[in-house]
Every structure is written in structure tokens, then in C-alpha cells.
From TrEMBL:
Residues 11-121 form the STAS domain. The lineage of its organism: Bacteria, Bacillati, Actinomycetota, Actinomycetes, Streptosporangiales. It comes from Nonomuraea harbinensis. Pfam families: STAS. InterPro entries: Anti-sigma_ant, STAS_dom, STAS_dom_sf. This is Anti-sigma factor antagonist.
Length: 125
């Protein structure tokens, strides 16, 4: 039986290096079931030398619960400790609403598309 059939969400996580930023693409749901995949991926990212920016591509995120929001805040604090700017790209729909409802919209640097976040990272490099 698939995780979805058991009521569990799925989160696919991949990453790549773009100039002076690591881009992590998220697809699916950022919740208690998806967090292990995200944390596992981030463990490898944190082992790398710091880059000027870490961009989370949220374009394909369909859901984010309170545990997911807590994880985003943890990522933000970890980035601050590494002197790495955290940018959220592709923030539309569900993620835009969640950030607005929680009052955290202004806590993050948010961009409507990944390209906008990449351009911002290039301008500030």
C-alpha cells in the first residue's frame, strides 16, 4: 500500500547549485510525514561549505502544516548562523496563504517564482 493510501503525504526533495546559491526543490506536502525527507536532504546541505544563498523552491508544495512552518523557521535560523540568505521562491497559492495566515510572510524573503529568487541572489552576490 502506498503512503498516500495510508493517509501519509509525500515530499520529494532535490537540489542543485546555481552560481552562488543552493536551490532545494520541494514537491508535495511539508508535514510530519514529509519532514524526514527534507531533514535528510538538509543534513547533506549543511555539511557543504556555506553559500551566499539557500533558495527553497516552493512552486510545487501543495500543503504545509505547523510542523512544516516550524521547520522553515529552523532552516532560517540555521542559515542566519551560517551567514547564508534564505530565499523562498515559487511562493504562490497554498504557501502564500499559509505564510500570510501565520503572519510569517515578512519573516522570510519571498518571491513569486524561482527565477525571481535567483535574480535576487545574483544581484546581491
Amino acid at each position: 500500500m502506498s503512503p498516500e493510501a495510508m493517509g501519509r503525504s509525500m515530499l520529494a526533495v532535490s537540489s542543485g547549485l546555481f552560481s552562488n546559491a543552493i536551490v532545494i526543490r520541494l514537491s508535495g506536502e511539508i508535514d510530519v510525514y514529509g519532514l524526514p525527507a527534507l531533514r535528510d536532504h538538509l543534513t547533506r546541505v549543511w555539511d557543504l561549505p556555506p553559500t551566499p544563498f539557500l533558495i527553497l523552491d516552493m512552486q510545487e508544495v501543495g500543503f504545509c502544516d505547523s510542523m512544516g512552518m516550524n521547520e522553515l523557521l529552523d532552516i532560517m535560523h540555521r542559515c542566519e548562523a551560517r551567514d547564508t540568505g534564505l530565499l523562498l521562491g515559487g511562493v504562490q497559492g497554498v504557501m502564500a496563504r499559509v505564510l500570510s495566515i501565520t503572519g510569517l510572510r515578512n519573516a522570510f524573503e519571498v518571491f513569486g517564482t524561482l527565477d525571481e529568487a535567483l535574480r535576487h541572489a545574483g544581484m546581491r552576490a
